[in-house]
């Protein structure tokens, strides 16, 4: 029985094996493979646990842990092929229906499964490619996504191999189109479990986890070494950065963190609920990557100035400007995202005029003293936090976004008083959305000049270009001061230019 299960669907797909290896596959299929590492709590549950009252498994006696793997494979497919943002899929209220059925522990596991499968996607793909002699066809339903989710567990997570394999096979069996391949799923995953150490070592280069076009673009823009360092940073879940309203040193000490630059503090290895941290209820700080906090600082002293925060939601930069004493008008096209901005400002006891509007048609009543335009972009600078971005964005998306950015920049530049300052920024690593955008704008608008940014102003070494723009890379901010653990390093990739209307 086990023998036929292994071979069903596997024939002609697994690379030809030497006779001894061939024998090994069937042997493995007959005897449970011992886990190499201590299993996770989740995997320690019996394969078919008695349904807990009120548990999501109570409805239809499914093997424990199946619902979370099913949601993971399904969401992976939607992220990759429908370009759905991972965070939106994982949203407990509005996200994927499978998420709503999971308890808090399984939601945490779901996030970890997807995060790991996406951060290591290139390595896993190379390993599957190495083991399969031809690709699994597109019409195989969720087979490939099931394989990726299971391989992520076996290779990079503390999940018992036998649990990862058997749940994947069950999932394949439940999918009408993938069913034909369940034997293949079984055989490939057992092979990965058996040879995990060797496969990890053989396919261990971090650049594999960046699509070829994206890595080539970073190589061209920043050089081989920076591109490799950036890819390596994307393997790690980033630290938690907070921006505090005031007293950053005091808050760093109270929260056990470290001051990074300006009002940014970093908490290394924080796990758990952010809203349970000291200072959340009283609105002393908000979550914001240290790099994302830099562009608003480029406007300098904004006390009493009329400042437009354009493309403002969910409001990290609005909060900075309001906390610095500006009269802020926050504009965004998304009413839903602006509701979050309003809730954030309310918690922080900060105020701003909030306007829903498309900047392509919005008309301000009067010009502004200063403008911050945080234009919609590919977000490739945030892959550390959003590993889906690397795989859901395509070169054609960059081209489309650069057109919108140019249009928005041109339009809003007309809303500035003479002598006023405009900061344009994007959380992208692609020069087309940053340096090239500003070069084109300045060439076409002689009434504007660049106000170069200095390293002293920012406090982050290596973050200023030769032209005087801000350019952060994920591999900047290594462990400082020297000797501190590496886990304190890293930064989102941001571009910002400061322009003056003459
Ligand atoms: C990078 S996010 C802004 C992040 C925000 N500045 C912050 O710091 O929290 C880009 C925003 O641009 C908004 N957006 C995109 N196209 C727009 C348009 N044509 N007009 C106004 N807002 C737009 C999106 O809704 C999104 O909230």
From TrEMBL:
Annotated SAM-dependent MTase RsmB/NOP-type domain residues: 202-502
Residues that coordinate or bind S-adenosyl-L-methionine: 311-317, 332, 358, 374
Entry keyword Methyltransferase: yes
Keyword annotations from UniProtKB, A to Z: Methyltransferase, RNA-binding, S-adenosyl-L-methionine, Transferase
Composition-biased stretches (Basic and acidic residues): 40-51
Catalytic residues identified in the record: 427 (nucleophile)
Name of the protein described by the UniProt record: Methyltransferase domain-containing protein
């Amino acid at each position: 029985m086990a023998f036929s299960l292994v071979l069903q669907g596997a024939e002609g797909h697994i690379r030809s094996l030497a006779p001894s290896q061939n024998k090994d596959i069937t042997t493995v299929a007959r005897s449970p493979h011992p886990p190499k590492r201590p299993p996770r709590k989740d995997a320690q549950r019996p394969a078919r646990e008695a349904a807990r009252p009120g548990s999501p498994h109570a409805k239809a006696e499914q093997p424990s842990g199946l619902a979370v793997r099913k949601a993971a494979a399904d969401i992976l497919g939607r992220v990759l092929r429908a370009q759905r943002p991972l965070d939106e899929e994982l949203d407990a209220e509005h996200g994927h229906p499978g998420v709503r059925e999971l308890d808090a522990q399984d939601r945490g596991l779901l996030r970890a499964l997807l995060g790991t499968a996406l951060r290591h996607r290139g390595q896993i793909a190379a390993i599957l490619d190495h083991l399969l002699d031809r690709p699994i066809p597109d019409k195989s339903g969720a087979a490939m996504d099931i394989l990726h989710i299971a391989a992520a567990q076996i290779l990079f997570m503390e999940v018992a191999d036998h649990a990862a394999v058997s749940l994947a096979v069950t999932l394949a069996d439940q999918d009408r189109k993938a069913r034909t391949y369940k034997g293949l799923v079984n055989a490939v995953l057992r092979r990965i479990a058996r040879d995990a150490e060797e496969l990890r070592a053989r396919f261990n280069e971090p650049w594999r986890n960046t699509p070829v076009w994206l890595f080539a673009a970073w190589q061209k823009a920043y050089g081989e070494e920076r591109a490799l360092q950036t890819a390596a940073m994307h393997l790690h879940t980033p630290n938690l950065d907070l921006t505090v309203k005031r007293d950053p040193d005091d808050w760093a000490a109270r929260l056990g963190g470290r001051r990074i630059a300006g009002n940014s503090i970093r908490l290394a290895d924080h796990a758990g609920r952010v809203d349970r941290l000291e200072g959340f209820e009283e609105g002393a700080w908000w979550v914001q990557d240290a790099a994302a906090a830099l562009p608003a600082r480029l406007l300098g002293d904004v006390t009493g100035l009329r400042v437009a925060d354009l493309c403002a939601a969910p409001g990290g930069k609005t909060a900075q400007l309001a906390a610095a004493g500006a009269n802020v008008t926050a504009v965004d096209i998304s009413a839903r995202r602006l509701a979050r901005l309003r809730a954030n400002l309310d918690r922080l006891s900060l105020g701003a005029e909030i306007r829903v509007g498309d900047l392509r048609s919005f008309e301000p009543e009067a010009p502004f003293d200063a403008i911050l335009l945080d234009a919609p972009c590919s977000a490739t600078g945030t892959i550390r936090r959003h590993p889906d971005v690397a795989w859901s964005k395509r070169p054609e998306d960059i081209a489309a976004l650069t057109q919108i950015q140019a249009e928005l920049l041109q339009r809003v530049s007309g809303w500035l008083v003479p002598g006023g300052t405009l900061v344009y920024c994007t959380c992208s690593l692609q020069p087309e959305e940053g340096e090239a955008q500003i070069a084109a704008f300045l060439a076409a608008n002689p009434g504007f000049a660049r106000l170069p940014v200095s390293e002293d102003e920012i406090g982050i070494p290596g973050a200023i270009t030769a032209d005087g723009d801000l350019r952060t890379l994920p591999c900047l901010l290594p462990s400082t001061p020297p000797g501190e653990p590496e886990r304190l390093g890293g930064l989102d990739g941001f571009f910002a230019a400061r322009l003056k209307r003459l």
